[in-house]
Amino acid sequence: MTATTSTINDLIQNQNPFAGHIVVRPQQIWGKSFPDVPSINAHASNAVFDAVEKIRKGKRETVGITITAEKGLGKSHIISRIRHRLQTEDSSLFIYMSKYDNLNQIKSLFLQSVASSLRAFGSQKVMQWQEIAAALINEAKQWEYTPQQYISMYPGWLSKHSTKAITHLTESVLKVKPEITNPYIVKAILWTLSPVHINYASYWLSGLELAQSQAEEMGLPNPKGEDREAEALSTVRQIIDITSYYRVPVICFDELDIADVADNGFLAAQVIASLVKDLYNSLKQGVLLLAMYPRTWEDQIKALPEAEAVIDRLVSDQADRQPIKLSFLNSDDIVSLVSQWLQDFYKEYQQTPSHSLYPFNETKLRELGKERPTVRSVLKWCADNFTLTDPDKSQDVHPVEPHFKAAVLNVDTAINLLIEDEVAIAAALRVAFASLAKDKVEVEKVKVEKVEEILANKADQGYLNFRIVGNNGKVKIGVVVIQQSGGKFIGAALKRLIEYEKFNLTRGCLVRSKKINPGASVPQECLKILLKERGGEWVRLQSEDIKPLLAISSVYYNWRNYELTEEQIFDFIKHKQLAINNPLIREILSAPSGQEPTNLTYDGLPISIPQPIANADNIDLNL
Q1: Residue 447: partners with Cβ closer than 8 Å, 6 or more residues away
Q2: Pairwise CA distance, residues 84 & 82, whole Å
Q3: Are 376 and 72 in contact (CB under 8 A)?
Q4: Which of 14, 330, 454, 490 is most buried, most CB within 10 Å of its CB?
Q5: Over the stretch 14-44, which tens digit does the pLDDT of each residue have?
Q6: CB-side neighbour CA atoms (13 Å) of 544
């Protein structure tokens, strides 16, 4: 459709395709990406694709690749390109890690990242776990059914044979794969094809503890707390080796340039480099990909003990044993990049501009290339200059507005993953309460004065998220966000939430969307004390309430990259009433009801289950 100039100009006044996309977020790695020009730094992404092909053809077993680039040059753009290209192919699967919350438990965190990554959809439009499970069964039984067909068959098999069906399939797999030493990993992977067990299975595969009744039903032993970190790397190796029977694993470590330090004195990049060295030595096959700043490589990786052995594995296919460096953009790159972004933008709104770079001037864009800019700086320039030259058509827009709009779209795309991310949810709530505290706003008879860390000894750390202080210090609400299933962790967190005197609280607040297993005695007892005896509250987490808070939180934690100020973000929250009118915020501050919320979801309900194929062949296991 050819658009009139006025129609396109109205669109430009109201939408900015560049705003909010200066920083690449994990949900863009997994979900809807952004316009990509494959020719820009193609040498880096092609190195990964070539490595996958060499492994697939048996020419290599394991390849280590490290990409270095200055801030904003496009490392995460390259990773997103790799993920979305691999998603279209049947020959590989993708594992991504970018959070390093506790470097002292890096193996457990890595196991959780592996399990979470394999929940993402692969080339067959089902979870990567389910693709591997179907491949295991097909090889063991010499069948050729799709994952969707197995998902359709499982309810019937379980109804007829109960858990004997999974036991039979597990034994069938182990007969043809006798080298697999942990049968429970196979069993858990096979459970992922059951729509009502997928969450429990992937949770267990993360190294976390199921409720004892659920573990017994599925025939899976719960991990012992003291052995969890020691066993995590062994579990990871076995999971990746099992997947590598059918796919080439591409394991990516991003965001390594943080300043966190482990107890042994190593920084995040050093901890991960040592982990990658271990993986390189022990995995059957795979591509190990790291992305970092050049200074991180020079100052941290080269300073490691036995640095030469580590480097040989991190850049195993580079003849000069140096990382792959990303290039700055030239004029042609800039024109191609901006043209691609605008092409996608106008296509989405079914408009045809007068030229492919409208409203920009090609000469001006090419002048930017003389400065050899980064991808981030070009997108920032486009976001700032995506306006019309006619001053009569200009309008005042809050500087945070375009970034917030883009963040809302990103959150919408990834909400099924984000609603399980306790760290992200707690951070979003904290930003909202901090905005109220800035102006000492009163909500539900609580004048919020400050938001604080809850000081705790080592045994108590990691359970309570923060404390809200108000009404001249008379109100002190401890908040904990718990979405996970493990009864042991829930019980431990609730035990601390009811210790008002120890943690200087007047009220405890649990934020959670799911029921708690009625058979979990410790959580249920603590919950009773919280609600009935201590005047605490359980607030139901709903995706629609947390979405805008997650969006503004993502802008807040990247305010420097957006060249904003904290003041501007808090002003925007106040202007849009994102906190004061948010039902979740108001419920946390309101007088507790003493009741468990209604309309909670059942723990274990799948986040996303593909629709079964109609009339799938319903074969019997003949047990």
Answers
A1: 440, 441, 470, 471
A2: 6
A3: yes
A4: 490
A5: 888 888 777 777 767 776 667 889 999 999 9
A6: 2
